[in-house]
Amino acid sequence: xxxxxxxxxxxxxxxxxxxxxxxxxxxxxxxxxxxxxxxxxxxxxxxxxxxxxxxxxxxxxxxxxxxxxxxxxxxxxxxxxxxxxxxxxxxxxxxxxxxxxxxxxxxxxxxxxxxxxxxxxxxxxxxxxxxxxxxxxxxxxxxxxxxxxxxxxxxxxxxxxxx
Length: 163
Description:
Structural class: alpha/beta
Helix content: 25-40%
Radius of gyration: 17 Å
Oligomer: single chain
Number of helices: 6
Mean pLDDT: 83
Shape: globular
Number of strands: 5
């Protein structure tokens, strides 16, 4: 673990409650490991949700402000806070997080509360990170995760192997 002490924990952050929870988890873990946190928001120009005439720099600045706000919320009221380095990166979400996590102690991402069908059709940033990361990945469940969400992940799969 001493080797990981200088390597940061990378955490994907957006405006969702799940991402805030992932950042809280990463901050707590960083305090235990005595390391920094790299809070990463990954964005790209999306013409389905952004006006096409909006300058990319304006979109980047909005994401930077949202990230700063989330970091401030998570830090508020804590007796100790590790160094938190904000990173605003233009890229595809999974690719950006995977690149930022190279050489990190771990990558922390939030799991969205969504149905199996939606996840199978659309894919998932957390699934891509788990499949392709070169560092350990922690997937933090959404704040509302409870017994009902456990049904989404069957404990036994006839085709699964162990060991």
